[in-house]
Amino acid sequence: MSTKIMKSTRGGPSVIEYRGMKFLLLERPTDGTMNTFVEELNQHGVKDLVRVCEPTYNTDRLEKKGIRVHDWQFCDGSPPPINIADAWIKLLKTRLRDEPGFCIAVHCVAGLGRSPVLVALALMERGMKYEDAVELIRTKRRGALNARQLAYLENYRSK
């Protein structure tokens, strides 16, 4: 196959909204998809991008568009470590206070594990039950969240 850009098989970005919060769940962009990625972020008014996987692209173009990039890498298939969960909750509280109607984009490699677990935490912090958070995310990202991440969420207590 000689195409330069492979189309995603994961269904593209997913929007999740709940009680004044909006999230855009995505897979990691490539050099070939970066223009589309930036356009998507702009369409949703994203001001913060949380990258939880290994950095594989330059963030200059995003930062020039006014998008703050938060590099909070953690292990694939894992729940977030305490310091990342705390930084995430702090970001949410700041945006809820300072920028009502905000949209935060979150991506890992495939958009099925690390990024959905952070969004589930956000939903739970705003009062959604664990089961409902998982169900909502899975309606948007089929196959999201593994057993280890689910166990973490089931035992998570809002801060």
TrEMBL record:
SMART domains named among the record's database cross-references: PTPc_motif (SM00404)
Record keyword ATP-binding present: no
Stretches assigned to the Tyrosine-protein phosphatase domain: 12-159
Species annotation: Sinanodonta woodiana (Chinese pond mussel)
Protein name as catalogued: protein-tyrosine-phosphatase
Pfam family, one: Y_phosphatase
Top-level EC class as recorded in UniProt: hydrolase
One of the record's GO cellular component terms: cytoplasm
Gene3D superfamilies cross-referenced by the UniProt entry: Protein tyrosine phosphatase superfamily
Bilayer-crossing regions: none
InterPro entries: Prot-tyrosine_phosphatase-like, PTP, PTP_cat, Tyr_Pase_AS, Tyr_Pase_cat, Tyr_Pase_dom, TYR_PHOSPHATASE_DUAL_dom
Family: Belongs to the protein-tyrosine phosphatase family.
Reactions listed under catalytic activity: O-phospho-L-tyrosyl-[protein] + H2O = L-tyrosyl-[protein] + phosphate
GO molecular function: protein tyrosine phosphatase activity
E.C. code: 3.1.3.48
This protein's record includes keyword Hydrolase: yes
Superkingdom of origin: Eukaryota
Matches recorded under CDD domains: PTP-IVa
Alphabetic keyword roster: Disulfide bond, Hydrolase, Lipoprotein, Methylation, Prenylation, Protein phosphatase
Record-annotated Tyrosine specific protein phosphatases domain positions: 86-152
